[in-house]
Amino acid sequence: ALLDVARENPPLEPRLAFVKSPVWDRAEADVHNAFAELADLLGETVQEEELPTPFDNIVDWHRLINGADLALNLASEYAEARDRLSADLTERIEAGFTVRALDYNRARDWIPLLNDGLDVLFEHYDAILTPATPGEAPEGLESTGDPVFSTIWTFCGVPAITLPLFEGSHGLPFGAQLIGRRGDDARLLRTANWLADRLSE
After folding, report:
1. How many other C-beta atoms lie within 10 A of the C-beta of residue 188?
2. Residue 53's CB: how many other CB atoms inside 10 A?
3. What is the pTM assigned to this prediction?
4. Which residue of 7, 60, 81, 163 is surrounded by the most CB atoms within 10 Å?
5. CB of 119 within 8 A of CB of 27?
């Protein structure tokens, strides 16, 4: 059923909420310029919206939860083979050991409240449009790049899809990310197909 819905044409032209997100200032000039051009191209289909203030804290909450979970899951590796772990991983595990249960649970308690806030947007829009990364893909295989533009959506547990629509100044790609309502993956895929088709015309 999911694939059937994803392959359908939307009954009406989708409406997109362009959300810069609290980390917009970390995006490079190529990203700023590309999204300004995309918004112009889409015209009335897209409207800029701001997220409520609590979304500003998500990067910190995500780091806290991720660190504690990492420390829990890699505790035996840390205890038995710490010298074989990278310095970065060791540092992240040790930071995770210091997370208080109270802070961890308070951060998790925000997830349903944030989704309630997103639901208000999804009453008016089919998807949220936002950058996938701060800039173009890094050269080489040492890193996949900074995931900060995905952090909000990962934290909230909402579906996201990236379309590699743009090319940076070094000839490497970067994408536009579409976000859907929690549990509404099929509609998001349908909207992504529509956007890809619209931009290929």
Report:
1. 22
2. 9
3. 0.89
4. 163
5. no
